[in-house]
Write a structure and sequence with these properties.
Elements lengths: L11 H5 L16 E3 L28 E4 L2 E5 L2 E5 L6 E5 L2 E5 L1 E5 L4 E11 L5 E10 L5 E9 L5 E9 L4 E10 L15 E11 L4 E11 L2 E12 L8 E2 L3 E5 L3 E5 L2 E6 L2 E10 L5 E10 L2 E12 L21 E12 L5 E10 L4 H4 L18 E11 L3 E12 L2 E3 L9 E2 L7 E10 L9 E12 L26 E12 L2 E2 L5 E16 L10 E15 L2 E4 L4 E14 L20 H4 L14 E14 L3 E12 L8 E3 L2 E6 L11 E10 L2 E9 L5 E12 L3 E10 L12 E13 L2 E10 L4 E12 L3 E10 L9 E10 L3 E2 L3
Antiparallel strand pairs: 1-2, 2-5, 3-4, 4-7, 5-6, 6-8, 7-8, 8-9, 9-10, 10-11, 11-12, 12-13, 13-14, 14-15, 16-19, 17-18, 18-20, 19-20, 20-21, 21-22, 22-23, 23-24, 24-25, 25-26, 26-29, 27-28, 29-30, 30-31, 31-33, 32-33, 33-34, 34-36, 35-36, 36-37, 37-38, 38-41, 39-40, 41-42, 42-43, 43-44, ...
Length: 814
Amino acid sequence: MQRDRRAPDTAALRRRLLAGAAAVALAASGSAAFAQTPPPPAATPAPSPVIAPAGPDGLTPDGVYIEADAAARSGDLISASGVGESRVLARFRGATLRAGDISYDLASGVATANRRVEFTDPGGTVIFASHLELDSDLKAGVAVDFATRFTNGASLMAATAVRRSQNVNELNYAIFTPCPICDAEGNSKEPSISIQAEKVVQNEELRAILYRNALFRVGGVPVFYLPVFAHPDPTVERASGFLVPIPSYDEGRGLSLEIPYLHVVSPSEDWLISPQFNTDVAPLLNLQWRRRFGNGMVEARAGYTYEENFGDFDGPDPDNLPDIPIAAEHRSYLLAYGRFDPEGPWRGGFTAERTSDKTLFDRYDVRDPYQDNGLYYGDRRRLISQAYLERQTLRSYVSIAAFDMQSLRVAVPNVDAPGLNIFESDDSLPFVAPLIEARWEPEGPVLGGRLRLRATAVSLYRDAYVGSPVLRPEIVPAGSLLGLPGVDSRRISGQAEWRRAVTSRAGIRWEPFVDLRADAYSVGDLPPALGLDDEAITRTRATAGLDVSYPLIRRMGDSADLILEPMAQVSLSTDPDLDARIPNEDSQTLELDESSLFRIDRFPGYDLLEGGLRFTAGVRTTLRWDQGRQASLFVGRSLRDAEEAAFRVPVPDAPSQLYDPSGLASDTSDWVVQGSFSPSDRVRGWGHATIDSSGEIRRAETAVDGRWGRRNLATVSYIIDRSNPVAGPLNRNYEFVQLSGQQFVYGNWGVAAAGIADLERDVITRSEIGLLFDDDCFRFELGWRSDNTRVRPTGPSEGVYVRLNLATFGGTGY
């Protein structure tokens, strides 16, 4: 995504430098503090004028307030002055002007301010000068010893500033810096970055800032000179021009430099042309087009190159592996999306995501290829193309969508030759059209409670056969599976839920509920060896239950509270009728946590559902103290009257064995333990774990981040999955530790480090460490990076990285 690189707001010179004309329309008398209005004509009295409302400062739009030690009028010349170090104060139109002397010529309309001139506009931008001349029409002006400080912290200074015409402002011997020019004690200091120029011209007609003999300084040291330099006028939101280049390094590409160029077509449309030049392979051309409409927008990114499929195809022993054809080919990608929200309840959009190579993003380091832009999201390393419509009102919601996916996941990694990784087949992913979801609830209560109605319909089509976990073990045929068609399925579901909340006088919350659900399936292309054909399947389920919670609070002193909230749920359902012929498309993964433990349907989709008698209990304990500091812990578990064998699936590396990835198959669920803590405003953390009946951790995740000093920080996280009981090439158990942080050692100098360790494979997946300089306006990092991810076709990569971010000018990214 493109970053905003607005140049410094020197357009304030145009608006602020001359805005004081109205301030010195000082039709003053001789009083020290007064508000002046023009005298009425001597002719017949006119009707009373309409008085404009006063602003926040009590002045009307044409009113001027002056406070001075002395003020006088001589003919058309009005003057006011301060004695000694005191200054004249003038307020007008929300702005403030201070100066040792202020004069205004009524005949010529010329205003002059001298001695420590300070002008503050309504937006807070401040201008300083020793001499300032303005006219009432803001078409001409002169400032000597000009300096301004913008609201974003940038400063602009010049020996003289002149408005040559209505469209041209000129500064002579000027210096611009986005960095602070004073330290915390108010003493002057050398800015980290500055641009010094003999002449700076702001041309409003060209909408550009032009520099002559521009000298760039870092820490006061000259580092770069350009006889001519230009950038867009800061008043322009976007303007055509080059953005900050993006350097990178990869062992497959060599040194790379991406040079983005922004071409603005109109205020609502632009192009970003960003070729990536590489020392070892052909360039990659990146394009981005953006267009906004009155009720929507479209953004499209694309890339193209003609190059070999470079990577590690022979491993450590090239003689024992066959030659792989890697001839040059046309290679490209497309990442596009659009959103449209016209007047009314309907809105819609689309995404179009495709790449010619499953490793193109990795080989060319394409930035942020996996984004969540549509109604449905493709997860990490899966692209999704979709079209959708939504209709939403206060009481209803309807969505209609169709989507297709492309997988860039590695199914079987090749440790010796990453270029030979086997990827997940796109034919194994379903094409979904349509997917319809609808919800509605009446405006008022029904039987004293809330009624919600839901309906869904979906059709899925596959080209390639996929067995477990999509198909139940009873439906997976023995022997060879080659040539079997993909199983297609269609489903229509309807659901009605009624729930009422009642709180007793003792503070106990009772929530009775009733849930009715019906599903109808049509399943085709089931394995013919089992004697199955297109099957029509229906099932129903009725559930009634009660949620109970009883929050208790106890004061633990003047600034501490202890909250104890036990909660329980009992539910009784009819037999869910989990027919083995129904594919499991949308309920393969389940995140059992505090929020899902008490749901009627704990699976995220519709293909699996629970029934029978269930009892769920948990308790949440929260300690709060000292203005926002707190710690909480939740522990809960669910019990059922009988085991549910349908929740077990074959072990990927031992199909004859079954295991329970959900933690709900036995008569007691996994324990859910979840907590968070923030003992101070600088430290916070959270954790979540599911623990089986034997006390073994099935899944867990925790993270802690902290800050100390003004800019030092660190974050550490840990995640583990041990749900698969059998080791093997298809085992998806994992264990990772991730660390990132920065520590300043001396002044603005410090070190930054980040890394991800794969404890399952005993390898550092990614790591980087570097030297850091950051003074709040200029951040520079130089370090060493290593990348050992399994999906990289070029194998492990190591090299130097450079990151540069300049306040006001942006950084190395887009």
